[in-house]
């Protein structure tokens, strides 16, 4: 009895050898080496084809396995052929779901980021260093009755607003232990600047980055009490402002100032060359006299001649911009926190598909992701054209 289309165990020898369109070569080639979690016997739909179809569906606004399956089921014959499917033998939603929730999610994320880097520039001028923000996000909808929500740690290109690598942080560990495995996925790390929050202000992390030839800017808070006390006691009142940024938007005004001190000696942290004081003063535009002030300290291995104060300030702002460029889009546009996907690696895989869709859209110069989803949902060929498949 032949295997059902939804089966993960099917016959590879019976699968039709469909030609891959030449224009699809980049993305197909990038995904070609992904290990297939299925038994080899009887595979009807190649892993790369299913993953590419899922990315196309997410570009068109799909938020769940069901929506991805419906998008695939509705594609016309010409689109099915361009994807690599036989029009009368499309994969079922059940097959797509079981395959995606069995994948190692960090592998397609890395492969897709390599493909995207090859077809678009990051926007960083060649004379400037690349800035990569390391930040984590909890997928709240993945919480089960007997377990905690899944957490994903990602490395994002600050300028391009795209995820370069990601890794799952399970309940037996935390972000600290996943820092090096995350950045191991990025080959072109030398001379880049890594920004991270206070959790990653760890001696092991800066030793790792020094071995990789990367620079860093790390926030210092209460998790490093001795270091935080040292920084707060530096003579900041005698230090002039190195950079100032006045921003208005979202009904408020924010004034950010940056002071920098050289700390070649006296700071108990390896490789630290400069200390930074970032002061943020905020007020609502309808309350002109009521300011709130926040002072944050940071350290970096960059020396005075290696980065100008304005660039340092831009990298610090760029780190928090990842919240708007990636996390906010996943939460609001793709409604990630209410997703009911919980089985296997499903939550991480769907996050990776959302990251891939956002990155592909941003690589095309698109800033309004919600409007882009609607645009691509109106014609099934549009996501394929965006990915260079037709």
From TrEMBL:
Highest taxon of the lineage: Bacteria
GO biological process: DNA transposition
GO molecular function terms attached to this record: DNA binding; transposase activity
All residue ranges annotated as the H repeat-associated protein N-terminal domain in the record: 29-115
Signal peptide annotation: none
Matches recorded under InterPro entries: ISAs1_transpos, Transposase_11, Transposase_11-like, YbfD_N
Pfam family, one: DDE_Tnp_1_assoc
Start and end residues of each Transposase IS4-like domain: 128-354
Record PANTHER family: H REPEAT-ASSOCIATED PREDICTED TRANSPOSASE, PROTEIN YBFL-RELATED
NCBIfam families: transpos_ISAs1
Protein name: DDE_Tnp_1-associated
